Amino acid sequence: MKRKLLNNLFAAVIISCATSAFSETPHWDHGEQATWWSLQDTSQTPPLSFPFAECGVGQHQSPVDLASAKIDQTQVNPMEILYSIDTPDFFNTGHAVQVNTSTHYTGKLKIGEESFPLTQFHFHEPSEHVVGATTFPAELHYVHVKSDGRLAVLAVAINVGEENATFQTILDNTPPDSGGKKQNSGLQIDPAALLPKLEQPIKYYTLAGSLTTPPCSEGVQWYILPQVITISDAQLTQLKSFYTNNNRLPQNINGRSILTAQ
Predict the structure, then answer these.
(1) Which residues cross the membrane (predicted)?
(2) 150-180 pLDDT, tens digit each
(3) Which of 139, 204, 218, 248 is the most exposed place for a label (fewest CB within 10 A)?
């Protein structure tokens, strides 16, 4: 009973961190990412040194240059993306445009026999993962958290092209002020409407990594779709009106391999 309680508390903390990228203690921004590891939390007495140390010393950091990694074609678990319509909250995290799923939302990412509930999805401009010299205009991250605290992130690159109506709804309902939330709007969003057209079985690339924002915690399993989605040039401009250059630069691959299906 005690172990179950501790596990539930641990999971609650992890989900809270994954659901909100907004943090005031200590303050950070993407412009100072080279020194995230050295920041101090001065809200503590005495100040807490290096709460984001993993950003500097971690060996499995994200994002990465996908062209720099060895691609291993092997047997991987089948993927199912089981998202359904939700009435979410729209959140300006202070670092990104984000959509938080509702409390009883049942959408999930299924890898083999394991299911990872979708807790939020957010956007970076430009992309965080790159392919050699190619950086995409933006990138979408679906963040999933199991009850035991394990995280799985599904990444989708974004190009400029045809407008996406669901993305427009998100942009139009995200509060302009840092930390702002639009709750109980009654608006329905289908997270699957932001996905590319997928063939079965779903092809993906996967590698071990980390959160791409402080505290840069490792133990995150990344799943990257090879297909891109599109938004219009006007939508990209509107996204930039919230945040621009809110991307972490590629990190050292450190011998990691990227796995994909044979």
Answers:
(1) none
(2) 999 999 999 999 999 999 999 999 999 999 9
(3) 218
